[in-house]
Amino acid sequence: MKVFGMTCDDCVFTVSNGLKSAGATDVFVSLENGTASAVVDDSVLSPQDLLKIPVFGEKSHYKAQVRKVE
Amino acid sequence: MNLGEEYDLVIIGRGAAAFSAAIKASELTSGQASIAMIGYGPLGGTCVNVGCVPSKYIIEAANVHQAQINTRYPGLTGVRTEVDFPALMESLREAVLEERRTKYSEVLRSYANIKVFDGKATFTDRNTVSVIGENGRKTISGYNFIIATGSSAKVNKIQGLQEAGFLTSETVWDINTLPKTLAIIGGGFIGLELGQSFSRLGSSVKIIKEHSTVTAGIEPELGEALMASLSGEGIEFMTGRKVLRVLIRNGKKVVVTSASSGNEEIEADEILVASGRTPNVASLGLDHAGVKFSERGIAVNGSMMTSNPDIFAAGDVVDQKYKLETLAAREGAMVASNMFNHTDKSIPMDQIPWAVFTEPQFASVGYTETEYTLRFGKAESRTIPLESVPKARILRKNHGMFKIVTDAETQKVVGIHVVSPYAAEFIIEGVYAIKYGLTYNDIIESSHIFPTVAEGIKLAAQSFTRDISKMSCCME
Prior knowledge:
The complex is a heterodimer of chains A (70) and B (476). Chain A is α+β, with helices and mostly antiparallel strands and 70 residues long. Chain A has one domain (2-65): Alpha-Beta Plaits (2-Layer Sandwich), CATH 3.30.70.100. Chain A has helices at 9-21, 47-50; strands spanning 2-4, 25-30, 35-39, 63-65. In chain B, strand 16 and strand 17 (297-298) form a beta hairpin. In chain B, helix 1 (16-28) packs parallel to helix 9 (325-341) and helix 3 (52-69) packs across helix 6. Chain B is globular and about 70 Å long. The mean pLDDT of chain B is 95. The A-B interface holds A 2, 4-7, 34, 48, 51-52, 56-58, 61, 63, 65, 67 and B 8, 28-30, 32-33, 143-144, 337, 340-343.
């Protein structure tokens, strides 16, 4: 995923926690690249659903877009 | 993909919708989204360069000139002053340049993530465009696209028109000679605004229209009121006339028209074609991108998404009822928000106000009585003349009308339409009334400033419940 709005390690922590709280596993967030990768069980949560979790929500400082699904 | 030419967001166009989208996307992503803005022609698009800004400039100048001649009040003698047309037009062009500099060119400096490309973009596949500019061809790819290429002056095929030469709302700003006689083909709001301005500055203006109304889709009685007012100051409306051809005779341009009464020739120094706007969809390669479109523009859903879910469209290029700068800018911002917030917000078109900046002005929001009746079954309406508004009598301006349309059962306001001085300034009351589902009683029970022209909306609301000619001043 491309993640917009991260500026520091605290942001990485917040985004990582947000993804994990939503049910994603193997979460890796890169401040340098502004990206995140995660594994989801798409029978429970689709990659597109991840974009609507609170940490990327309308009131959040962070925004995300799916770039690649494997 | 070539990483050096890959962007998070590619915006085709660089007018109001494009800028609004680019800035909103930048804000939402903390300036981290890489944005390519591709277009040609001056920055800012129609509004600032050839639309609202220059037209309102010449309208205001013409109004000042008119006020010097017709002071309206006994005891104040009118003075006919000279019009230095070249100087006026030079100042107009400078005003456009200044507005473009402050609201577009300099604004870009605040956004390092936005890169502007000069050239024409054509889709080569669903996420790539080829840009051809002065510096050659460039390929730009993106994960998201917004098409905001705007519209152009529509010029119908008329025999001899190209050979004779003509002006449009895009080229009229370059002239330095006031035409003594001006024939306007088409009488929509552009034709009316420019027609009145040129008439007030000294041109003899004839507006040639195929239809009998001034502008399609407006309340007929208000259209008639506006037309009567403009006719009253010397503009000649030639309605029910089809333009057959244009020719040059003895150095003059001649518009040959036909009507049920027979053919008629209109001779003029200059011809202004004001037949509306046409969306800029040609040469975009939309078929390659899987974007559906027609000659009316790009088809979108409520959230402005095209038939390709990665491509949105905003502004005049969209197949929609209104072509307005404010709507384009709002759509641009909304599209960026939908794109990065993953929302599907939409804009209710029945809450979009629009205006014609003639004098008197025409302003409207919501449904006409006919539109609402056809769609929902039953509407009620009340219309009052402008002369029933005290401020209008004080202004000694009596050409105009207020009309309120309501749902027959709920009494909720569904449309407000006005021909009056300052109508564009207070039509926002109608926007709020419709947006918040207000009834005519809600308007009656809201105090309006006395004396204002806007009080006409309250009087029109009161006319649902009583004979307003039997009311004392300001009573509820």
